[in-house]
Amino acid sequence: MRQFLLFIVVSLFLISCEVEMETTKPSIQAISESVYASVTIVPQDVYNAYSVIPGLLDRVYVKEGDLVKKGQALAQISTSNQRISRESAKLNMDFAKNNNRDQAAILSGITDEIRSVKDQLKLDSLNYYRQKSLWENNVGSKNELENKALKYELIQTNLEGLKKKYERTKLELDNKYRQSKFTLQQVESSLKDYTIKAKMDGRIYALRKEEKELISTQESLAQIGRANDFIIEMLIDEVDIVKVGLGQLIYITLDAYKGQVFEAEIIKIFPLKDSRSQTFKVEGQFIEPPVKLFAGLSGEANIVLEEKENAITIPLSYLKEGEIVQTKEGGEVKVKTGLQNINYVEIVSGIDTSTILMKPEVQ
Known about the structure:
4-stranded antiparallel sheet; 363 residues; CATH 2.40.50.100; 35% helix; Elongation Factor Tu (Ef-tu), domain 3; 6-stranded antiparallel beta barrel; 3 domains; alpha+beta; 4 helices
């Protein structure tokens, strides 16, 4: 029994000694405050290639991983009906063009008529004014003057009619040709919509459709992005987004590069919150990127808000209620804090490096 009591006393003593050893002093070191974010590596300028018309994919010219050039054909939608329409429009245009050549003889005939009527007009004009002059000198009859005046007016009317006929005939022929040419251009332009092309130089990161599948205007054929240029996509909690700004330094760790830390900076902050994840999307760019990157690599980021050299710091576990420390000699002391990370907190005032602190008991 005495041995058992001795064992309890010794155990209590050791425990008390262990509790007394949970002390520390503030230390001077560099400290930085940062915001945590999850990281995904994505290609720069990534976009989804869509078709502007629905249809059946007749040919798909690319596969995942392929490099493509701007304007390169990615896939072809079946155009059998459209090609028939093009041939019909081409035939109509050729017919109108030939009509123009055939009707040139008609226009030439009207031109000859106009020339003949103009000659007759000169003669009738001369006769009319001569007869008018004679009548003014009491020579000739009034009936003769009226006949020449009527003939002169008729030939003028005839000339105006021929001129209008010429312009009307020419306009009709020209309009028929222009209309048929425009129709052909429209059909040929629509045929371009049946070819899905790349909008930039890049790489095919995902191919979502195969040959002989239907595609709609809402379905993506492929995802394309820059081949060797990547950006860092981060998701920031809504409580931290107000602390984040363009140009801030980021320390990146990637699962594919264990033990390595890469520097980057913020280049874009998206203003709209994702209601499902309650996060904001932020993009960063490597200052010195890893040797090799792949789309979809994941990791973590710490966005540096502020850094300070030679700061007085204590372990965060020694701070309670955000502003109280337990000193060995003077009991609880209220302190003013500054920067803080997951391990340490800066002490601005209240204690100094000579103060011995006791670790609070975990409640």
